[in-house]
Amino acid sequence: MNRLDKLKLQKNYENLLEVMYSCVSPYLISKFILDAHMHAEIESLKTERKKMEKLLEILPTRYYI
Description:
By secondary structure, this protein is an all-alpha fold. The model has no long low-confidence stretch (mean pLDDT 94). It has one domain (3-60). It is built from five helices and no strands.
């Protein structure tokens, strides 16, 4: 992920925590941003907030166009 995108995630972190993981996960999987292992790890978490926290931890480490 490029620096500008990382900054956007940081700036909008609190708002992004309000998004439901189940709403964004199909797109992220279809674009190969998340793999099955990552998805399963996130899905194992109990709350939507924890799921989004984990997603926002993973996203900056991913390279995508």
